[in-house]
């Protein structure tokens, strides 16, 4: 056999073997499950393209944020979040005018779709169902109900609607309404954590994951929480900054792996010192990640009288405080020893007991005595000095003492906390006892400014 013929026979033999192997392999794989393929369809509808192109021109900053987001990488466009059904209560009729423009090639009727300006947790739940359910159970989502149950500013109408819109409700949330085909400016813009949305959902995911980047990194940093948790009444960001945790973050935060995938952000691996999110929301050890910030709490430190979360009447927790404390302690032991953690909680429990029994309960009993004897007018709150003194005792100094202790910030626990509690308590008691001894009624401020706010509880929360 010549060389050429031998080569042909060899090739033919190889091909036969390949076919035989292929047939055998196919036969063996007939009963095996098909490997799952993860594919993202990179095309998008013409309507979605019109949204992006129009906003790219009209709002380049908005477009740039979206383009740098994980949403953009996953081909999640404007319509995936903003598109609504024509019959939805939150459809923007004003936006339909954008499809009648003559100065924009994307402003044509062929691209017309109903959209809602406010994206809600219900919208986000299409892709993030677990997070939406967790958030719906939290104090964040239900803070409108909570403040209407405990806050005299609202219940006595002691501030104006504009003061509420610009201040309180910007964090706590408005009740969104439509006026003249668009969101009512009396309720919008707003990204409050307890915002009542027109689709019935509560809250705004963009409180922490701001538009249109929706960054996990941003929400993990303490500054995200510090947008609302600051000031004389709940200075968590200032307390955190003073604490060792905050000091470590200031020194090493630029080395943290802020972009670790959700559920994988690990202490000692991705970060050294904790942030608000890593203690109250992120997972570690056997503790799962949660968007319910009510979890892991064993005291209601913001309440007038410190109680266990399940005993907080305005919004009782649905879990047992001991189980939640165990979760938080496991988070702590990722970096601290068991004795350190247990002794810290012993100190915090002691501080709670002293605040309750030495400061709050005697002051509350004295306030009730003044009302019972008609020496204070119970019609409204804040228009008599002792009402303000009592309010700030628990709402300002009392919170700072308790929260400063819980987050290991000694200056807030003492100088901004208990030291100020002593001054406030002593002044309150001196004047209260003087009124009781003399039988003289307290001065009522007749010219109390701007006490014009509505006292009607939102029917969206409390019913008609």
Main attributes?
20 helices, mainly alpha, 1% strand, two-stranded antiparallel sheet, 464 residues, 49% helix, Hydroxylamine Oxidoreductase, Chain A, domain 2, 2 strands
The helix/strand order is HHHHHHHHHHEEHHHHHHHHHH
**Strand order of the biggest β-sheet:** 1-2
Mean pLDDT: 92
What is the CA–CA distance across the termini?
101 Å
Rg from Cα: 30 Å
Q: Tally the helices.
A: 20
Strand content: under 5%
Helix-and-strand structural type: mainly alpha
Low-confidence stretches: 23-40
In short:
This protein has 464 residues and is an all-alpha fold. The protein is built from 20 helices and 2 strands.
What does this structure look like?
- The longest helix has 35 residues, at 338-372.
- The protein has helices at 3-29, 46-58, 60-67, 70-73, 78-82, 121-124, 129-136, 143-150, 152-155, 161-172, 216-220, 222-226, 236-242, 244-252, 276-280, 321-332, 338-372, 385-406, 410-438, 459-462; strands at residues 178-179, 182-183.
- Among the domains are: 46-117, no CATH class; 230-297 and 315-336, Hydroxylamine Oxidoreductase, Chain A, domain 2 (Up-down Bundle); 339-438.
- Strands 1-2 form a two-stranded antiparallel sheet.
- The chain contains 20 helices and 2 strands.
- It is globular and about 80 Å long.
- The chain has 464 residues and is mostly helical.
